[in-house]
Amino acid sequence: xxxxxxxxxxxxxxxxxxxxxxxxxxxxxxxxxxxxxxxxxxxxxxxxxxxxxxxxxxxxxxxxxxxxxxxxxxxxxxxxxxxxxxxxxxxxxxxxxxxxxxxxxxxxxxxxxxxxxxxxxxxxxxxxxxxxxxxxxxxxxxxxxxxxx
Length: 149
Description:
Blueprint: H1 2-21, E1 30-34, E2 56-57, E3 62-64, E4 67-74, E5 78-84, E6 90-97, E7 106-111, E8 119-120, E9 131-138, E10 141-145
């Protein structure tokens, strides 16, 4: 019995070591590009202190394939995008323009976590003359978007 216990322990240790070396599928995470993060509040979620409760929906809810896209704005913190009733491989995106001309200089996206059907982005700072817009993308394709605000 003692030998069998040792064999079981060694087998379990080997399996644990293999699991530690095997990559585990991660939950959704934000992605960003351009010069995103260059301005205050960028890189933080809208629940950050000082911003919580200051956002309001701007513009109409956009829909595509039964999914919805909403754009939220705070004159204190900036903006963020939220998607609902979404499927996997979809993402909420905020594009931000430094010049206010509507050409994206920075962006941040958030994909839908497994087991839920919504996602919301970190803040895009569209204050002081900058503008931003929200997008709903699935499988790398833009399904709908809001105006620049």
